[in-house]
Design goal:
single chain, about 425 residues, alpha+beta, conserved putative lor/sdh protein from methanococcus maripaludis s2 fold, 4 domains, six-stranded antiparallel β-barrel, 19 strands
């Protein structure tokens, strides 16, 4: 009887141990993080040097000879020699009439466009979507401070609203638009007939690009001065705030080639060489990069002056003068990985004299089939959220490539470990 009791106790003990082991393994697996991976991909980083800059152009200021001025050209618009730039009106009433005429002409153009797109067959839901998209686009431009295409975007929105109003208002939308066009043309003819005599027409003294901005730098620095410009002179110019001639009508930029004189607060700038072309990124008022040729490079007293030139994007930059820019001196290409994916392995190395030293190897673990595989890499660039890397051996058959699946979260991992069933 005692023997039977002992056997039962042993069996019960084994069962209890098995249950405890089962729950221990279950809990351990439950608290283990699932494998988290991401995909490595090709990426490039522009490495720039910040500089203070001054745009330099060949410019001719246009004096204003009247009080009631009607500018006929848009900012940055090209004009030929003798082309009309502005009308000087004899009175404020005459100027007001002219502005009303311009507004009517724009409305007629919008209505004719709406009619030409086939209002009767226009899908109303598509119009609703376009109106909303146009409003979102304008809001985005305003939020970013990018006003370069705001006028065109507003014109497109107004046209869509015209179409939508007539589609929803009447099945005879096309007839209504035609009648509205006729009424507005009659009003336009009446205004043209009543327009007061224009006292003077201002024409361009030379061909070029018109700008309504006169900031006072036009006479302080010209392209002819750049070949002898010194760092101290440029420093002085960047600190100036010349008086603006508010009486001027505007100016004509007479040469399509313009320059950027920059001052960098360091004497040695890696990667800058005269004759090479670099991308310049502007801090505000112009969005995008402009390729410019480095014409002159001067360094002294811990500062560098770099003068660039280009004959593109003049129409887009006529309003710019003093700027903070980034000179993109280098573009780094590699494989982008999250910061948490990079791992460090420290090895002890013995040299020929028997001296030991610690050497760090950097790499990532990739998932190959069901196993983790160590890929050694070299860090090219570090950012707040990622590293840009490349394989240590670009010719190795087993190396990190764009598109590889890399492991993020597992700390207890080794090369060849099974990480996926």
């Amino acid at each position: 009887m005692k023997e039977s009791t002992l056997v039962n106790k042993v069996i019960i003990g084994v069962i209890c141990a098995a249950v405890i082991l089962y729950f221990a393994v279950y809990l351990a697996l439950g608290f283990q993080d699932d494998l988290v991976t991401t995909t490595a991909y090709s990426y490039s980083v522009d490495v720039g040097t910040e500089a203070s800059g001054l745009l330099v152009r060949q410019e001719q200021v246009l004096p204003n000879s009247g009080q009631y001025v009607d500018i006929l050209l848009d900012e940055g618009e090209k004009v030929s020699k003798g082309g009309e730039i502005a009308l000087i009106h004899s009175s404020q009433d005459s100027l007001n009439t002219r502005q009303t005429i311009q507004s009517l002409e724009a409305e007629i153009e919008q209505l004719e466009y709406s009619l030409s797109t086939g209002t009767q067959t226009t899908n109303s839901s598509r119009l609703d979507e376009e109106v909303v998209n146009s409003m979102v686009a304008i809001r985005s431009l305003a939020a970013e401070g990018d006003l370069s295409t705001l006028e065109d975007s507003a014109l497109h929105l107004r046209t869509m609203v015209f179409q939508r109003d007539y589609v929803y208002g009447n099945t005879q939308a096309a007839n209504q638009i035609e009648k509205l066009i006729q009424d507005k043309k009659k009003e336009l003819d009446s205004l043209n007939a009543s327009l007061s005599q224009v006292s003077q027409t201002i024409t361009a003294p030379t061909s070029g690009y018109f700008s309504g901005e006169v900031d006072g730098f036009e006479s302080l620095i010209t392209p002819d001065m750049l070949s002898s410009l010194t760092i101290s002179q440029l420093t002085s110019l960047l600190q100036q705030e010349p008086a603006t001639d508010h009486s001027a009508l505007g100016k004509v930029v007479t040469d399509p080639t313009w320059y950027l004189a920059t001052l960098i607060d360091q004497e040695s700038v890696s990667g800058l060489l005269e004759g090479k072309t670099y991308k310049i990124s502007f801090s505000h008022d112009y969005y995008g990069m402009i390729s410019m040729k480095l014409e002159r490079l001067v360094s002294e007293n811990g500062q560098t002056m770099a003068i660039f030139s280009t004959n593109t994007h003049l129409s887009d930059t006529t309003l710019l003068r003093q700027q903070t820019v980034d000179i993109i001196a280098q573009q780094i290409e590699g494989i982008r990985i999250p910061r948490q994916a990079l791992r460090v392995i420290t090895n002890t190395v013995t040299d020929e004299d028997g001296n030991e030293s610690q050497v760090n190897s950097y790499g990532v673990y990739t998932v190959v089939g069901t196993q983790a595989e160590w890929q050694e890499v070299k860090v090219l660039h570090s950012d707040d959220s990622f590293y840009l890397v490349e394989p240590v051996d670009e010719t190795a058959s087993s190396r990190l490539r764009a598109g590889d699946e890399i492991i993020l979260n597992s700390n207890h991992i080794s090369d060849g470990m099974v990480v996926r069933s």
